[in-house]
Amino acid sequence: MILGQTIVALVFAELASHFPVAGSIYQWSKRLSNRTLGWFTGWFYFWAQVVTVTAVAVIVAFVIDGIHGPVGDVPFLDSPDPTGITTMFTFISLATLVVTTMINAFGVRLLSVLNNLGVATEIVGM
């Protein structure tokens, strides 16, 4: 699995060095074949990103639940289930999506600062 991911990363690096344009997979597919394949590739990549970001947001709720313990006792969230866990997971997932969207909306500079802060935190935590 790691070998396959490394090969894909090397291919992407080679494509980026030959075609240093914004648009990543869409632009590379369009330039290597034709506009139709680029269009399909762009849309497939778009929907793959939508599914991936949504899945990560849901997983964050499970991770927070695992670290914090049950998070169902929140009085302002009414839920049809007695524990409130479903509503809390939905709330955490939506909050994760809002936070990541806001970070991306502010641009690369903020994301760079947050990335460096995260790396420093990991190094200190080791």
Number of strands: 0
Class computed from helices, strands and strand pairing: mainly alpha
Mean pLDDT: 82
Terminal Cα separation, in Å? 25 Å
Q: What sequence of helices (H) and strands (E) makes up the elements?
A: HHHHH
Radius of gyration: 20 Å
Poorly predicted runs are none
* Total domain modules: 2
Q: How many individual helices?
A: 5
Largest sheet: none
Explain how this protein is built.
With 126 residues, this protein is mainly alpha-helical. The protein folds into two domains: 1-32, no CATH class; 43-125, no CATH class. It is built from five helices and no strands. The protein is extended, with a radius of gyration of 20 Å. It starts with a helix and ends with a helix. The model has no long low-confidence stretch (mean pLDDT 82).
What attributes characterize this protein structure?
single chain; 79% helix; mainly alpha; extended; 5 helices; 126 residues
List the helices and strands and how they pair.
Blueprint: H1 2-18, H2 24-32, H3 35-68, H4 85-105, H5 108-125
Helix pairs in contact: 2-3, 3-4
Q: Quick recap of the structure?
A:
By secondary structure, the chain is mostly helical.
